[in-house]
Input
Amino acid sequence: MKKRWQALLCLFLYIILIAIVMNFDIRKLVDIRDIMALLAGSLLLALPFFHRTMKKEEFFLLYEKKAIEAGLIQTFLLLFIRLSDKKGYTEVLQDMALCFRPVLYGLCIRVIFTREETQRIEVQREEEKEGFLYNNKGAHEISFEDCIAVGLTQREAQIALMICRRCSNREIAEELVISEMTVKKHVSNIFEKTGIRRREELQEALLSLYRK
Output
């Protein structure tokens, strides 16, 4: 929490500095309605990806990404509304500039919530996509090729790694563009080959088989 307050303070000082150098009214950057709309929109965009096992750091990482997306969506809508207004093109450049405030708010949220831990999670997820499984300390444990070596098919290896990342059958089906029924069939085969009954046992089972 202390780090976030420090990030917020540094961000505020930076904006003040730019305002002084560029000689503009900083009060024009603040719009409570836009801020509240962005916060609510970011939460709504994040909800479909939220799950009970998600850690606090993972949620912050998700929220900061959705804040950027919400800022862009909100800015587009504000520009569309402004250009469709009967007000016409009087002071249109000034009004359009103010429409970009949600993008600034989204970037501010990213600066505040970005921490070393969330950055580590982001890097970890990128490498997981390439086929690596991690333990709680961030060390490599088993790869896609290792899953193949213990007797899983390519598709089973993909699904096994995703299960270890705590993905649900529905999430696996969506990412691999297959049906949930097909996922369940592969999961059943994985359980049979590894000799387990619960998803939580899979990582240890894969490691045990690989080390034999």
Remarks:
- Strands lie at 132-134, 140-143.
- The first helix runs from residue 2 to 22.
